[in-house]
């Protein structure tokens, strides 16, 4: 793979944190960290009508959120591929929802889920591949 070289400036504290991380993890290639971070940033901020795949990660109190969560998931049944549900303790659950659709629709779904009472975390993680619509 051909590559372009660039130079960046970091605040000293961020640089120290990066160097400490690289040392602790034994990472031999600093460039790889920046490539992954940049790819994630570009994916999350991409505009357009591509069909994307992703995971919506939820942490929630099932006593407060389950009913509304199920209702919204049924509204987006065409975008939800699969779900994985884990019990953390008596009240808290983690749910990973595999999704596919236009980014705007998946962001809308994530935002609606995040507004449910009892949802402690709702995050859309965008994955590959992209399909042109």
Give a brief outline of the structure.
The chain is an alpha+beta fold. The chain starts with 11 loop residues before the first helix and ends with a strand.
By CATH, the superfamily of the largest domain comes out as ACT-like. Chain A, domain 2
Describe the biggest sheet? 4 strands, antiparallel
Q: Quickly give the structural class.
A: alpha+beta
Helical amount among residues, as a percent range? 40-55%
Which architecture of the largest domain would the CATH scheme give at its second level?
2-Layer Sandwich
Q: What spatial form do the alpha-carbon principal axes imply?
A: globular
Order of helices and strands: HHEHEEHE
Q: What is the β-strand count? A: 4
CATH fold assignment of the largest domain = Alpha-Beta Plaits
Uncertain segments are none
Mean pLDDT: 90
Please give the order of strands in the largest beta sheet.
2-3-1-4
Which radius of gyration do the C-alpha atoms yield? 19 Å
Kindly provide the name of the CATH class of the largest domain: Alpha Beta
What portion of the residues fall into strands of 2 or more residues?
25-35%
End-to-end span in angstroms? 28 Å
Number of separate helices: 4
Binding site for Ni(2+): 74, 85, 87, 93
Keywords: DNA-binding, Metal-binding, Nickel, Transcription, Transcription regulation
Organism: Saccharolobus islandicus (strain L.S.2.15 / Lassen #1)
Family: Belongs to the transcriptional regulatory CopG/NikR family.
